[in-house]
Model the fold of this input.
Amino acid sequence: MNASLLGPGVYPAQWLRPTVEFLLATQRASGEIPWFDGGHTDPWDHTEAAMGLSVAGEIAAAERAYAWLGEMQLEDGSWWACYREGEADLSVDRRETNYVAYIATGVWHHFLITQDANFLTRYFPVVSKAIAFVLCYQSPEGEIDWAVDPSDAPLGDALVTGCSSIYKSLECAILIADQLNEPSRAWRDARAKLGQALRHCPDRFDRTWESKSRYAMDWFYPILAGWVVGEQATDRLAKRWSEFVEPGIGCRCENHQPWATVAESCELILALLAAGERDQAAELFSWLTQWRDSDGAWWTGYQFAEQVLWPNEKPTWTAGAVLLAVDALTHHTSASGLFLLPTLED
Done:
């Protein structure tokens, strides 16, 4: 399959089928989608994999994944950051706000594909409780704390990437509420405040640790989340392209480490498409096909200084990110534009 030829209406279903089968084989009967057999599950990556199943037309499997999230949701609307075999692993005893909010993105994505109003109605209470939890940790200045400890105390700082993900999830939550004629003003106000903080208050982020700007996600997530758009998006990508992109390989995780990852490269593809850089997006995907294994799963990444695949893992969320990137490149589903253009103004 010549990935550089991917375009509208050229969804390579047969080529991607082993990737889909890998996701289906890894999903538990409960609906839970761990990183891989024997691995743990977290709510964000579980949702990313579920979105991949929706793109592939595996509607029942995707809905089992959302049912698992509904069953595991805590009374306050949150989820723990880590689960093993359906039980919370409290050695990771925090709840991450962007993990919690991402249910809204997944539910709206699934609805865009299925147009199933009953599904949307069924999961609106789950989404509403999750967003209510997240917004408890928004400061007066607008940023949202990255995580909460077991006593419900915020951990005291905010992340650009995490808040960007929440910004997109708030957009999706508002669209769900509007579709169901539910009130959304409080969510709109919260999203506007968060957008203001992200755009104009950089001092509200990375206050207690070294800046995370060395990570590629801080570079491109503002674009796929929709708070950097148009010419600013194009300029932002161009400014640090050579810092993060290794030609012929993919996108580095950190600017100073010789390690490229498939999932972050796929998310960069979404950002490129959002910025109107389609040729670059298609070329980047063409580099990634070498990291697909014979079973259809995709390796996490490649350490190009040592020339080794690292780590020795093929996560479900990487497969989900691949499916989302191919959908965006080919316009295969009615959700293919979700990360390419914000639907709402602040």
